[in-house]
Amino acid sequence: MKRRQWLQAAGVLSVGFVAGCALPVIPRRPVAGHADALGWVRHQNGRYELLLPRIDMGQNIGTALKQVACDELGVDWDRVTVRQPHTQQIARVRATVGSESVKDFALPLAQACATLRDALAAGHHTGSRRAEPRPLGELRAFQPGARHVGRRAPLEEGRAIVTGAPLYAADVRLPGMAYGRVLRAPVSADRPSRLTGWNAAAARAVPGCLAIVEDARLTQRLATGLGIVARTPGALDRIEAALQPQWQHGESFTQADIDRLIDVDRHIAAASLSNPVHGDTMDLTAPWDIDLRIDTPMAAHNAIEPRAAVAARGADGVLDVWAGTQDAFYVRDVIAQALGLNDTTVRVHGRRVGGGFGGRTVCTVELEAAVLAQATGLPVKVQWTRAQEYRQGFHRPPSSHRIRARLRHGELVDWWHAFSSSHILFTNAGMPVWMQRLADLVGDKGVARGAELPYRAQRRRTGFAVTRLPVFTGPWRGLGAGPNALAIESAVDECARLAGVDPVAFRLRHATDPRLARVLQRVADHAPAAPDTAAPARHGRGVACGIYKASSYAAVLADVRVEPDGTVQVLRLRCAHDCGTVINPDQVRAQCEGNLVWGLGMVLHDRLTVAGAQIGPGSLGEAPIPTLREVPPMEIVLVDEKDPPAGAGETAIVAAAGAIANAIRDATGVRITRFPLDPATLTMRPS
């Protein structure tokens, strides 16, 4: 929703608001243009500097954009230095989200580099220039035979990563730096809680204790926070134990409450599917050929690096914040509003992020560090524990799907997809109840992502319900695309089986987008023979495909082996991927591989459950991710027909899980309807 629409909607509906309904900071997401890009590239004394307008969080966008810059400038690789700027060095840019870095930033950067190249050729070596938009066909970086684009390139910061150089927010070291933590009640921050007592004397007696900070700005949603500051990070645990805080909190809830709120059949019965995707009229009462329910649970981002931030007052009086965030400008705005400062007195330094996946889009640990630094007058680092990541961060919401279909002569006639989930873009980690209800009037497009059926049917009807949960939910890799595509591809596979048609042929028959058909055909062409599986193990092969954000395409072929006890091993994954013009093939393959592992996790592992009115797991051992032993050989086939560059970071998520689930169905005859897989459902029964 655009900011102007927000203001107009608020003006219409604000009559009933009361004191306390303060408008939180709204992220601003400007579209990058060629004029903005002039601020990203500079020339001095024969060398060039590229100020990276995107946060690098594993997608290695610094490498890809440097390839574009070098080709357009016509210079050697070592003459361009890439640097992550702070918020006072470039104009505001859109958060690093949506697999948009190449799609939306490569063209403006190339246009700016072309302007700079022509200015230098004309003898202009000082000052700034105005950029003129140039069509793709006039930009050297995207022409056949480019020196860097479309080829392998040295990984920016690659050596620094493997040698442990200080790239991340947790690596920042400042003279006299202290270490902080904010304590909160052991319940979800979406439920009110407050501190009723603590042993301050015992905490201050702990060696290394520097301060105990009471500050209303340490409140997270409805959870009061109490700050502690120590001379060493190891002292924080001892101070927390000595403090013995007592908490009072409101109503409790269980996993059964979450399941009930999301139950799609309850929403169908209540006619509460108020968010349409497809709206064709059809008979919903006549018999259905396919009637399938799919349920997916909450899932964590499980980034390797817990979030961290360092805040310190600089010599110039500006508050400096070093943060591993996907939106440095939003963090600046939140801190400035909370501390009564302005844009010029807060400076956020974006750092490389050790895994974001949508989870680093709100301001959390950054504000905590800023408040504690202001209270103590010291540089302060705050780094969340793994338990805090689970219990104070937001997660992929659960979803519940009911898909019904009718076929005639092997053709898909009627398709009805009803589903229920919780908020993604309009996350309750940043929105109060009243604001979320206002946002619901326009619908959460993050929940809807990937819900459009990518196949032909005579009539299509898709709608969904969004319910606020008592735990934080929000953006997760691909937003709703992963669970939605898993449900759709499971149902389409059942349609193919009912029609007695090969699943690849059935999809090709119903595909309306030639690029979707192309990746599907490519993944099936020359696919290796299915591996032999000795009895009593069972072998299966599955396929799935999909479209991401109407611009990128993927198809996946999966081979699995299922043991008699129901244990599943994924033997091989083959992915065909089309994201338009490929800037860096190695990095696109790496992004595909990451998505395939996420798909494996969706089927076999991903689950967060509620316990004691909070997220239950507190460690990676309690919320496991795929291990290296479980990751199979992967083959990535890149399909590049020179369409405009599009996103690669999340595309394969639309096919990865579905292919594995369909392979398990092929091996066992059992359709998985609740994820992650319970091996007991696949156990071979004695004959």
Task: Kindly summarize this structure in a few lines.
By secondary structure, the chain is α+β, with helices and mostly antiparallel strands.
Characterise this structure.
With 687 residues, the protein is an alpha+beta fold. The chain folds into 3 domains: 129 residues, Aldehyde oxidase/xanthine dehydrogenase, molybdopterin binding domain (Aldehyde Oxidoreductase, domain 4); 159 residues, 2-Layer Sandwich (Aldehyde Oxidoreductase, domain 4); 325 residues, Aldehyde Oxidoreductase, domain 4. Helices cover 29% and strands 21% of the residues. It has 19 helices and 23 strands. The strands form 6 sheets. Strands 6-7-4-14-11-12-13 form a 7-stranded mixed sheet, with helices on both faces. Strand 15 and strand 16 form a beta hairpin. Helix 15 runs parallel beside helix 19. It is globular. The chain starts with a helix and ends in a 19-residue tail after the last helix. The N terminus is likely disordered.
Specify the biggest β-sheet.
7 strands, mixed
The overall pLDDT average reads 93
Helix content: 25-40%
Number of DSSP E strands: 23
Rg measurement, Å: 26 Å
Number of domains: 3
CATH architecture of the largest domain: 2-Layer Sandwich
Structural class: alpha+beta
Low-confidence stretches: 1-21
Our estimate of the beta-strand percent is 15-25%
CATH class of the largest domain: Alpha Beta
How widely separated are the two ends?
58 Å
Number of helices: 19
Output the strand order for the largest sheet.
Answer: 6-7-4-14-11-12-13
What would CATH call the homologous superfamily of the largest domain?
Aldehyde oxidase/xanthine dehydrogenase, molybdopterin binding domain
Give the overall silhouette. Answer: globular
Kindly identify the CATH topology of the largest domain. Answer: Aldehyde Oxidoreductase, domain 4
